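Supplementary Note 3. Input sequence used for the single-chain structure prediction.
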Amino acid sequence: MAFDNACKYLSETYPREFATWILGETPTSVEILKTELSIEPIRADHLTFLRTTNQILHLEFEVEVEGEPPLPLRMLDYWVRLYRRYRLPVTQAIILLKPSPAATKLKDTFRLGDTRHRYQIIRIWQQDPEPLLQNSALLPLATLCRTETPSELLTQVSQQLAKIETVNERGMLTAISSILAGLRFEKNLINQLFREDIMRESVIYQEILEKGLQQGLQQGLQQGLKSSILEALSDRFTSVSPEVIQRLEGLTIEELKRLNRQAWTCETLAEFISQLPA
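The predicted structure, written as discrete structure tokens, is reproduced below.
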């Protein structure tokens, strides 16, 4: 989870750079879209939805590709929901962060009967690191790229990070690089090249390190669930009173999950309100 969400943080901090990398051209504008999609809500912290001038870019970062529902079906589901909402062409890319038998076998097409849906698969360990080494926003991903000498590649990344002049940006990118490098390298080598004092120069250091990241993820999940609840109620019952919004504050993740289900299944707004904790 930490690896996926480090990538999400990176792509939402540098959306133009990621859009340029995936699309092969620099968009004139990029907007970050929320990660909840209606009908039955689906939300995942490792997704990034970017909107350029004339299309939607859906990035999905994955370490483990096996799950339920299967990843190809999820990609089709996201495409349908994104197109239904925005009526723009949707480009999808799965960025696989770690080699595995399942990742190697993953197909770039969902097939069932007459249905065919294609998406791009980027196996990061097969990518040439040079373009990523030249772009500070993509440096953390370069740690996982193709190389015959992994330790030399990691050294190159650390050298490029050291050239970043802005203190906060250097610390943030170093912290994310150290997290992603953990998928491939021993901790001692990572600590040797990515010094903790440099990472502490970043104001988001505690969010990126595992303890801080988990806290950030919890807060993000709570906010995401509240947003999903309010979106469901607004879509189904037109308006939601400030009292209902206030009563969602301070609830636990489990309480919000229960209420999220209620928001999409209750018959009336009054029925939903009756389920709110006193």
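Residues 39-45 have pLDDT under 50 and may be disordered. The longest strand covers residues 56-62.
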